């Protein structure tokens, strides 16, 4: 029997700068390591996070990721980050990161944020919602795997920086995954699961589900 594991490990060396080599025979945590003698300071540098992302989209928000795919020096080190821009009333819709807890720092604007706990042991109880209004300088934590969102409730733009406990946290946007999958989930499945008429599911599946990250 073959088993494969993948995780953000404790590094076994100072660094393992990722090299994009599709033919690599030896890989560490998904990427081949650059020869340490060839590693340069630029392998650990990403620039431009002072620039706002373009929020002209149906959600009015934009995520600029800085994970191992943009910054190869992050490979095997277990952290990454993102800049998140919000137009007035822009939303980062409910989503989860399967591989990371997120610490979210607001630097501009006012955001209403929250997360929901996983299903309680007692089936008679509900999943619990935790919410806050965040202002510049506030940090809020979204625990690994839990559904969370951020909504710009101010009349001005908002800017935040998210840091993650993974070099590649992954994102599942709930509505996109459920109603916008390719191919679509059988609408009978969703009608029963969401306890609504099938025409509501047809309507939702016909929408364009914009992915911002
Ligand atoms: C914010 O929640 C983000 O994942 O960028
Ligand atoms: Mn997030």
Automatic annotation (TrEMBL):
Primary location class: secreted
Residues the record lists as binding oxalate: 92, 97, 102
Cell compartment(s), UniProt: Secreted, Extracellular space, Apoplast
Protein name: Germin-like protein
Organism per entry: Perilla frutescens var. hirtella
Domain Cupin type-1: 47-202
Gene3D superfamilies on file: Jelly Rolls (2.60.120.10)
Matches recorded under InterPro entries: Cupin_1, Germin, RmlC-like_jellyroll, RmlC_Cupin_sf
Keyword terms: Apoplast, Disulfide bond, Manganese, Metal-binding, Secreted
Keyword hit for tRNA-binding: no
Cross-referenced Pfam families: Cupin_1
Origin: domain of life: Eukaryota
CDD domains from the UniProt entry: cupin_OxOx
One Gene Ontology cellular component annotation held by this UniProt entry: apoplast
Protein family membership: Belongs to the germin family.
GO molecular function: manganese ion binding
Disulfide bonding pattern of the chain: 16-33
SUPFAM superfamilies: RmlC-like cupins
Binding-site residues, Mn(2+): 95, 97, 102, 148
């Amino acid at each position: 029997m073959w088993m494969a594991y993948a995780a953000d490990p404790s590094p076994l060396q100072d660094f393992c700068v990722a090299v994009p080599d599709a033919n690599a025979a030896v890989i560490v945590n998904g990427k081949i390591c650059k020869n340490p003698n060839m590693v340069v300071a630029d392998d650990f540098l990403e620039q431009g996070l002072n620039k706002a992302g373009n929020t002209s989209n149906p959600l009015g928000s934009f995520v600029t990721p800085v994970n191992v795919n943009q910054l190869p020096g992050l490979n095997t080190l277990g952290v990454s980050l993102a800049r998140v821009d919000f137009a007035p009333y822009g939303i980062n819709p409910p989503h989860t990161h399967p591989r990371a807890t997120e610490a979210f720092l607001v630097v501009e604007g006012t955001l209403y944020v929250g997360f929901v706990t996983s299903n309680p042991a007692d089936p008679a109880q509900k999943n619990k919602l935790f919410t806050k209004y965040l202002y510049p300088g506030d940090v809020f934590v979204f625990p690994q795997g839990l559904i969370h969102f951020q909504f710009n409730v101010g009349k001005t733009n908002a800017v935040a920086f998210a840091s993650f406990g993974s070099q590649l946290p992954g994102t599942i946007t709930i509505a996109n995954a459920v109603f916008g999958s390719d191919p679509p989930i059988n609408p009978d499945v969703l009608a029963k699961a969401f306890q609504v008429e099938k025409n509501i599911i047809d309507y939702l599946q016909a929408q364009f589900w914009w992915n911002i990250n």
